[in-house]
Design a protein that fits this description.
Elements: H1 19-38, H2 46-53, H3 65-90
Biased composition (Low complexity): 1-18
Region (Disordered): 1-24
């Protein structure tokens, strides 16, 4: 069962703001997903890490490592699609790894 905890080392929770702030939050979540995908042992507290990056309104449950691996892979694929849409909207060329 998930419990709320506050830690002085946790980054501030994102709040509604500009599109730039939203994009920065999006990139932080992607970096965490990529880090976890590369080495799950590097992020043993994945649920807590995600809770620190996402607004309080997003519920993150505690999951087994195998479940996190499936979820992370799924969201990394979705990230590539979303990033391509964002880049296209901003008029930025897509990077080679993104379509």
């Amino acid at each position: 069962m998930a419990t709320a905890s506050s830690s002085s080392s946790s980054p501030p929770r994102p709040q509604s703001g500009s599109a730039t702030e939203s994009l920065e939050a999006f990139e932080r979540v992607h970096a965490l997903l990529r880090r976890y995908n590369d080495n799950p042992e590097d992020v043993p507290d994945m649920a807590e890490q995600m809770r620190a990056l996402l607004p309080d309104s997003v519920f993150i449950r505690d999951l087994r490592t195998e479940d996190w691996q499936d979820i992370v892979r799924y969201h990394l694929r979705r990230y590539d699609v979303a990033r391509a849409v964002i880049d296209r909207h901003l008029g930025a060329p897509s990077s080679p790894g993104r379509r």
